[in-house]
Design a protein that fits this description.
With about 575 residues, the chain is α/β, with parallel strands linked by helices. It has helices spanning about 5-15, 45-50, 55-65, 90-100, 130-150, 165-175, 185-205, 205-220, 225-245, 265-275, 315-325, 345-355, 390-410, 415-435, 445-450, 460-475, 490-500, 505-515, 515-535, 545-570; strands spanning about 30, 40, 70-80, 80-85, 115-120, 155, 280, 285-295, 300-305, 335, 365, 375, 445. The chain is about 50% helix and about 10% strand. Strand 3 and strand 4 form a beta hairpin. Bound molecules: arginine.
């Protein structure tokens, strides 16, 4: 239940009762801060245009139908046909009471669970994850958490890049240098081997030939190649797992389903595409021509799915992967979190898979793109030497910085507490800063803002949470069953409850669009409203017990919503700060 959906129900019924056919958007919105009303309906103007009737007349008709309902204190039409609503306190009190007694905080458990594949993080093997993986990893994880909470069957997939020529290069290099896996090889070392192997591949024909040969042997599952490959993959995924754990990202080892897993299906897939007249042979390669894509000269673009040397490509794997997700996993919806550079690739593979009939018409395929992280100079965020900044470096720096801040604020803090709080605050702040930005845009990375206790930041919200907890502790009431009902005396209390009753709408919105910044803004506004409420409405020192208990209830509800909201963002709370 949320206010928008409740009002929608009321207005939809009124429209139908007024004999207006219903498939239009009512445009129900919370009014902005400086307006006198609480909600408004601004879709009637459009609806009346489509129906060729006067918007004022339609609004009047609607108002007559709902006048007697108890949800509003005042309802007005602003010409030509905007309806503004001041909600009734009593009605809001009832809704608030319901939310208070609901363990799910009014959030629906979907009646129609869908199978949804979320493809996120998906780094390449033999390389450390870098800053470019942050957004995919943490935004994808928010969608996973939200969809799960709503009751969907979510299949998390870490589609790692664990197949292809880079393994041929690595195998050739490691054999040549007689590198023994018995000595400890970590991901850092592996990445150095990979860089050296790549350089050699580019300049040394003999080495390149060898690498291609090993790639072929690997594809044919030659056991010594598979052995080395497995070790390389193992080192990488275990290392990444540590990072996910530190980042509080829900991906597990069992969610790894990389490119290699589709290897056995590629041959028959290409055959099938030829049989269906979707792919053709040209100069030894196998290509799918797509009219939907033209190159600069206006010629139809081709997607190669098998090279002359009979090797397959990233695209071939993604087509096979789509087929698997639709036909074996029975996905209703597939969401990819990769940056915008893969937009064309994903569009192409989707069209091919659809043409081949691998993707049923009703399956939704979505690419949730995101912008880049930039330095203060608005350049891609890199190290001084121009390398990508590793995710581990960012994480360590976040913890280091939060440790310093906590120590400054609480010189007497114990080591145990410090070690406990520093990652929660540091990593929470790092994640929140990213999540609070609209994913479509680039943003500028700035440690000062990230760890600030002011504004739309994690520390501000975590701190607001600890303040409420401390009020509740002082009142010694937070665990008791309070029989007294919520009553809204002051305007700010009404504002607070309206904000709380919006929670489900925010969650449903994220489940559709995968944009966590909406939740961040929501929590920031909620924390600010609570702060004004706390300043203007005495809680512990309220004159009447009834009011004291009502305000305690509002505080409990706010703390629960903040905790759940942060939890859905993958950010932890602490009880004192
Ligand atoms: N490994 C790829 C990369 O690092 C991302 C994979 C995204 N998922 C997919 N099914 N193509 O760019």
């Amino acid at each position: 239940m949320n206010l928008k959906s409740e009002l929608s129900k009321i207005f939809k019924k009124a429209l139908i009762d007024s004999c207006v056919s219903f498939d239009h958007d009512l445009g129900i919105k919370k009014s902005s801060k400086n307006q006198k009303s609480d909600y408004q309906v601004n879709g009637l103007i459009n609806i009346s245009k489509k129906m060729h009737i006067d918007p004022y007349e339609l609004s009047n008709k609607i108002i007559l139908k709902i006048k007697k309902k108890k949800f509003h204190k005042k309802i007005e039409i602003i010409k030509p046909g905007l309806i503004t609503i001041i909600l009734s306190k009593k009605w809001l009190e009832e809704k608030a009471e319901k939310m208070f007694s609901c363990s799910r905080l009014n959030i629906v458990n979907t009646k129609k669970p869908k199978t949804i594949v979320v493809d996120y993080s998906s780094p390449n093997v033999a390389k450390e994850m870098h800053v470019g993986h942050l957004r995919s990893t943490i935004i994808g994880d928010v969608l996973v958490r939200v969809l799960k909470y709503l009751g969907h069957k979510v299949i998390k997939v870490n589609h790692i890049g664990d197949w292809g020529i880079q393994f041929g290069m690595l195998i050739a290099f490691m054999l040549e240098k007689k590198i023994d896996f018995k000595e400890k090889i970590d991901l850092k070392k592996l990445e150095i081997f990979y860089q050296k192997a790549k350089k050699k591949y580019e300049i040394n024909n003999n080495f390149a030939r060898k690498s291609k040969n090993f790639t072929c042997l690997l594809q044919k599952k030659e056991s010594f190649c598979i052995d080395i490959w497995k070790k390389i993959v193992d080192i990488t995924v275990k290392y990444n797992q540590e990072i996910y754990k530190k980042l509080n990202v829900s991906l597990l080892l069992k969610d790894v389903k990389g490119e290699s897993q589709y290897n056995d299906h590629l041959r028959s897939l290409v055959k099938d595409l030829i049989k269906k007249n979707i792919a053709v042979k040209k100069n030894g390669s196998i290509i799918v021509y797509l009219n939907e894509f033209k190159n600069r000269n206006g010629k139809t673009m081709g997607v190669i799915i098998r090279k002359k040397d009979k090797s397959y490509l990233y695209s071939t794997i993604d087509i096979a992967c789509l087929k698997y997700r639709c036909q074996t996993l029975l996905a209703d919806r597939i969401v990819y979190y990769t940056d915008s550079r893969q937009e064309q690739h994903l569009k192409q593979v989707t069209i091919i898979a659809k043409k081949a009939g691998y993707v049923p018409l009703n399956v939704l395929i979505e690419h949730h793109v995101f912008g880049m992280i930039l330095s203060k100079k608005k350049q891609p965020f890199k190290t001084r030497t121009g390398d990508n900044i590793k995710l581990t470096t960012l994480i360590n720096k976040a913890i280091e910085k939060s440790t310093k801040i906590i120590k400054e604020k609480n010189p007497k803090i114990s080591k145990k507490e410090l070690n406990n709080y520093a990652p929660i605050i540091g990593i929470g702040a790092l994640k929140y800063f990213d999540l609070s930005k609209n994913r479509n845009n680039n943003y500028i990375f700035d440690w000062e803002q990230i760890l600030s206790f002011e504004g739309n930041t994690a520390p501000y919200i975590q701190y607001a949470y600890t303040r409420i907890i401390s009020i509740l502790k002082k009142s010694k009431l937070h665990k008791l069953n309070i029989k007294e009902k919520i009553c809204l005396k002051k305007e700010i209390e009404k504002k607070l409850i309206i904000q709380l009753l919006e929670f489900e709408e925010i969650i449903l919105n994220i489940s559709k669009h995968g944009k966590p910044h909406i939740m961040c803004l929501y929590l920031y506004e909620l924390s600010s409203i609570f702060s004004s409420f706390y300043e203007t409405c005495p809680i512990i020192f309220a004159k009447k017990k009834k009011i004291f208990l009502s305000r305690i209830k509002l505080s409990i509800l706010t703390s629960k919503v903040i905790k759940k909201g942060l939890n859905l963002l993958g950010i932890k709370t602490i009880e004192k700060m």
